[in-house]
Amino acid sequence: MDPLGVLISGYHREDADRIRAILDHLLATEVIVISASGKAGMPIIEILARGPEDCFTEEESKILMFLGFSEEQTQTVLDGFPRGGEPQRPIFCTLTRENSRWPLSQLVEHLREEHRRRTGKEKKSMHNEAQNTEALGREDLARLVVDFLHRTLVHHTLWFAEVERQMGMPKALEVMGAAWEKSYAVQMKRLSEAFGFELEKGLPKTLLDMPQEKLLALLGDLGRNWLAGDGIWFQAVEARDGLWDAKRCNDSCWVRFSPFEAWSIRRFLNLPEMPGLAGLKQALGFRLYAGINTQSIVEEGPESLVFRMNNCRVQSARKQRGLEDYPCKSAGLVEYRAFAETIDPRIRTECIACPPDAHPDEWFCAWRFTLTE
Asked: Looking at per-residue confidence, does 137 or 357 come out higher?
C-alpha cells in the first residue's frame, strides 16, 4: 500500500503538527506532511520532489492537498477535520496533472477564487453596499480601523520617501526627527483615549509595567515580525516577477533602510556626532537583527573591528532545508556600509566574506570596519 501524504501551505510548525495528528487519528495510519512554505514561485511537482522540509510559515491562505488518498479517505478527512479552533480549516484540493505544473502562488490564487465562488462569499464592492461608515456593521468597522492604521503607516513612509527623493537622505532624516516626535505625541494620545490605556512619560503604561524578560521577549517577537514582513514582500515580488526582480528591489530597499535604522539607533542611544568604532559596536547590538540572529565582534585594534553573523535566521532555515545559501552579498555591501557611515562617516567597510562567497561553519558573513581620519 502506497503511503498517504498531504501538501500544506500557510501553517506554522505547531499547526502542522496538529494537522499530522488529526490525519493520523482519522485514518489510523501515518500520513507524510510536506510543507510548501517559502516556495511561492516553485512548481508543485518540484515541491513534492523535495519531500518533507523543516520550514513552516504562517500565511493568510491555508491549503491542504491530498496525495494518494482514495475517495473514501478524502471524505473521511473532509468530514472529520475540525471546523473551529486550531488549526484553521484549510481549503482542500487534490493533485491533478494540470495543477502539478503550476507554481504554488497560482494554485493558492486558483483555490481562493474557487472557494469564494463555491461558498458565495465573493466580496462585493463596498461602495455598492454602504455610502458611508455609519452603514457598516461592527466587523467591517473593525476591519476599516485596521485599514486606517495601515494607511497611516504607509502615508508616513511615503512622506519620508518623497522628502528623501527631493532633498536627499541626510535632510530627510533630519525632517523625520522633527515630524516623528510631533506625530508620535498626537497619535499616541488619541490612541490611548480610544483604547483606554494610560500614558506615562509618553509611553503606554502597560509596557512600563511589563517585567524585563517579557519586554525582551517582545523585542524578539517584533524583530521576527519585521523579518517575516521582509520575507513576505520578497516572496510577493518573486511570485509575480521572478527572483531577480525581487532581489533588485530587496537590495534597493536596504540602501534606504540601513541608514534609517542607524539614524534611529543613534537617536535612541544619544550617540555623539562621530562616536567612532565604539559607537558602531554599541549600535550593532541594537539592530532589529540583533535579537533574532547570533552575532559577535572581534576588536583587532584601536582602529578596526570585525563583525560576524554567526547564525543568520534566513540562511539557517535554508540550510535545514538542504538549500544553498541565499546570495545576499549585494545587499550586504550597501547595508553594512550605509549603516557604518551613518554612525560615523569616517568608518570604512570591507566584506571579508558573504554568500555566495565560501565561509566557515562558524559564521555566514563577516565584515571589517576601519576608522580613518
From this structure: 357
Paired strand residues for 200: 203
- Which bin fits 270, alpha (ψ -120 to 50), beta or left (φ > 0)? left
Give residue-wise pLDDT tens across range 287-305. 999 989 999 999 998 999 9
Q: Are 306 and 333 in contact (CB under 8 A)?
A: no
Cα 266 from Cα 271, distance rounded (Å): 5
Residue 242 amino acid letter: G
CB 55 within 8 A of CB 80: no
Per-residue pLDDT at 352: 97
CA 296 to chain centre: 23
3-state secondary structure of 29: coil
CATH of range 4-119; options 3.40.50, 3.30.310, 3.30.429, 1.20.120? 3.30.429
CATH architecture of 222-373: 2-Layer Sandwich (3.30)
